[in-house]
Task: inverse folding
């Protein structure tokens, strides 16, 4: 007899947004951080049914029952647990793995095992060579063994087939290819994808390794960071580096610090800022925002303070705001990233805490760092229209009005003029569905062709 695998159940519980599910059955109104509506399980005139997006849970005060999206479907549609899991998995594009389907089960088991064995191999490549280039790189960057061990950082040797030789014979070549750790080449049927790189593993929320990011140790390598490709286990558009270790702290502190790279992430964790996540070179998407919103609706962006980092912060700010997440931008200056910042002797934890408290509103950040007020009237008018186009994609009317007010104050434009433009401008761009990997905002606030290329 077939039964749904725990892997599918875990993905449904982790990825399905309870607010999105219940909104299709109940008319909900936001009140504070939660949403309220009339109970769908009994007759009432005053709303006592609550949905908490940050906890991904619902609760009916009248009947004293509550739970997650699966439990809601079971209660509302009077169906079984497997039927609820299957229904949600099909709707949200989650592959249904069934025990009893030995071939499919075996494939996932083998992919997880390949990644675990690869991680052990990479870890041992550092431990077995304590004076090698990989250990020297980490030591020079002042990363202690405790951090290296906690996040299972390793090293992929500068070889075309060292990992392949380690795993070949244990797994079929087709399975190895599906893992994303190997590529086809003229040098042989398969070669190692990661070579001469510091290896940072990605974990699922259940603690299994699902992919890697590799930082090249060669100055001649054009691709500084290389991530695993899309696989059955690894979806880059919704995965954060460090989420397995830090999401509980993010929920507890009710805000996340979002950084670009793994070394920035590790430095902040080392400095006890353990509510941090990294996008790891992947453009921030609506899928990222949806995943993050289950744990918090407040984000501090702390990206690199070079031109590329500024543009990335602007793009990410819009995506976060358009997904209902309160956003502030922490700008370190001097071209620094968080790793650079804490490697300077005069910077302390207290300094960073002060910067968090004074982090800028996204509108203020954009206007300042794109020198909008120094531009001519025509360019300022163009910028205003572009900003309004982004604000139109914000679903919450209160947040939209706040952004319009902020834009008016910062530009010195009468609020009525901004509102008039908001009403008259046609919404030329539409929010991409969550399921689409293209669901990122393309920002047009460029000062130069160099900015645009970046």
Result:
């Amino acid at each position: 007899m077939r039964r749904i695998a725990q892997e599918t159940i875990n993905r449904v519980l982790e990825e399905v947004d309870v607010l999105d599910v219940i909104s299709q059955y109940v008319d909900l109104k936001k009140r504070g951080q939660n949403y309220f509506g009339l109970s769908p399980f009994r007759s009432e005139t005053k709303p006592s049914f609550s949905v908490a997006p940050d906890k991904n849970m619902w609760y009916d005060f009248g009947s004293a029952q509550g739970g997650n999206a699966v439990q809601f479907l079971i209660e509302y549609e009077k169906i079984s647990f497997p039927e609820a899991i299957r229904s949600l998995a099909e709707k949200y594009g989650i592959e249904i793995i069934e025990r009893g389907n030995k071939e499919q089960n075996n494939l996932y088991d083998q992919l997880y095992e390949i990644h675990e064995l690869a991680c052990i191999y990479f870890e041992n490549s550092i431990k077995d060579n304590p004076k090698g280039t990989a250990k020297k790189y980490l030591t020079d960057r002042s990363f202690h063994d405790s951090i290296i061990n906690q996040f299972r950082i390793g090293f992929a040797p500068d070889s075309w087939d060292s990992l392949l030789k380690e795993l070949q014979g244990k797994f079929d070549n087709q399975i190895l290819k599906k893992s994303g750790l190997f590529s086809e080449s003229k040098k042989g049927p398969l070669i190692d994808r990661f070579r001469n790189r510091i290896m940072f593993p990605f974990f699922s929320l259940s603690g299994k390794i699902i992919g890697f990011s590799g930082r090249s140790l060669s100055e001649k390598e054009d691709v500084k960071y290389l991530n695993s490709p899309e696989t059955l286990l690894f979806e880059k558009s919704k995965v954060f580096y460090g989420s397995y270790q830090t999401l509980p702290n993010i929920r507890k502190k009710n805000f996340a610090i979002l950084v670009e790279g793994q070394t920035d992430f590790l430095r902040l964790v080392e400095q006890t800022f353990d509510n941090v996540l990294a996008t790891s070179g992947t453009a921030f998407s609506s899928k990222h925002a949806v995943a993050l919103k289950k744990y918090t609706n407040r984000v501090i962006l702390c990206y690199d303070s070079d031109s590329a980092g500024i543009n990335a912060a602007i793009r990410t700010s819009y995506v976060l705001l358009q997904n209902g997440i309160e956003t502030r931008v922490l700008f370190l200056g001097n071209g620094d990233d968080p790793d650079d910042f804490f490697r300077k002797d005069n910077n302390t934890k207290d300094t960073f805490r002060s910067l968090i408290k004074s982090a800028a509103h996204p509108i203020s950040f954009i206007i300042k760092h794109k020198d909008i007020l120094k531009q001519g009237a025509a360019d300022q008018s163009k910028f205003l229209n572009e900003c309004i186009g982004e604000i139109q994609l914000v679903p919450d009317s209160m947040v939209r009005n706040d952004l319009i007010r902020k834009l008016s104050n910062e530009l010195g434009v009468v609020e009525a003029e901004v509102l008039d433009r908001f009403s008259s401008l046609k919404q030329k761009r539409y929010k991409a569905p969550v399921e689409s990997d293209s669901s990122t905002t393309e920002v047009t606030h460029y000062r130069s062709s160099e900015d645009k290329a970046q």
About this structure: The two ends are 54 Å apart (CA to CA).
